[in-house]
Write a structure and sequence with these properties.
The complex is a heterodimer of chains A (114) and B (114). Chain A has 114 residues and is mainly β. Chain A is globular. Chain A has 1 helix and 12 strands, in the order ββββββββββαββ. Chain A starts with a strand and ends with a strand. The longest helix of chain A has 4 residues. In chain B, strands 2, 4, 5, 6, 9, 10 and 11 form a 7-stranded mixed β-sheet that branches. A 4-stranded antiparallel β-sheet of chain B has the order 1-3-8-7, with no helix packed on it. In chain B, β4 and β5 form a beta hairpin. Chain B is globular. The N and C termini of chain B lie far apart (37 Å). In chain B, 34% of the residues are buried. The mean pLDDT of chain B is 92. Chains A and B meet through β5, β6, β10 and β11 of A and β4, β5 and β9 of B.
């Protein structure tokens, strides 16, 4: 079956620090990969996505590269801000057989302090 | 355009009671999904409607959960009778086309069963 494993939180960082959240996956078929973010009191928002190997998704200073050889999709940001405090979810979808159904990881809470 | 609306935002009920969660998708979105996150674990798929029909209900945990989508518009998720392990955050999402890329999530309903 499909599964997503991401690093446990909480991750606490100082402002302007470098952030990495590890995500690895197993999938039957060829998945698309996503990072979603949930800010306090809000719904899930798509942060970035990649649909094929070696694609790099990017948004709001965040980046993640689809690595098929290591089945990974690690999220990185070079300089975090307090406003980046949120819960981040890695997810995949195997569109061929799932009608867009998403398989999520457990989420990683990130806390950025001034 | 209005987003996906869920209510209530919070619900606290006693074990054995009934609770109904509601989701109003974005107008015109045929696809409606329910997910839930239990106790800080991964967000899990519950079911998927295409218009008023259940396309995939493989994630529904048991027959205490009943989902409906009247006329292909809003959807309700009823839990009857509620158990302690049903506590969590229930998310709804909608999309116009097939696939994960166009998902819009609601802000979720936090259900606490005591």
């Amino acid at each position: 079956g499909n599964s997503v494993t991401q690093m446990e939180g909480p991750v606490t960082l100082s402002e302007e620090a470098f952030l990495t959240i590890n995500c690895t996956y197993t999938a039957t078929g060829y998945p698309s990969l996503f990072w979603y973010v949930q800010y306090p009191g809000e719904g899930l928002q798509l942060l970035l996505k990649a649909t094929k190997a070696d694609d790099k998704g990017s948004n709001k200073g965040f980046e993640a590269t689809y690595r098929k050889e290591t089945t990974s999709f690690h999220l990185e940001k070079g300089s975090v801000q307090v406003s980046d405090s949120a819960v981040y979810f890695c997810a995949l979808s195997v569109a061929r057989d799932s009608w867009g159904k998403l398989q999520f990881g457990a989420g990683t809470q990130v806390v950025v302090t001034p | 355009e209005a987003g996906v609306t869920q209510f209530p935002s919070h619900s606290v009920i006693e074990k054995g009671q009934t609770v109904t969660l509601r989701c109003d998708p974005i107008s015109g979105h045929d696809n409606l999904y329910w997910y839930r996150r239990v106790m800080g674990k991964e967000i899990k798929f519950l079911l998927h409607f295409v218009k008023e029909s259940k396309q995939d209900e493989s994630g529904m945990p048991n027959n205490r959960f009943l989902a409906e989508r009247t006329g292909g518009t809003y959807s309700t998720l009823k839990v009857q009778p509620a158990e302690l392990e049903d506590s969590g955050v229930y998310f709804c999402a909608s999309s116009q086309g097939r696939g994960s890329y166009g998902y819009t999530f609601g802000s979720g309903t936090r259900l606490t069963v005591v």
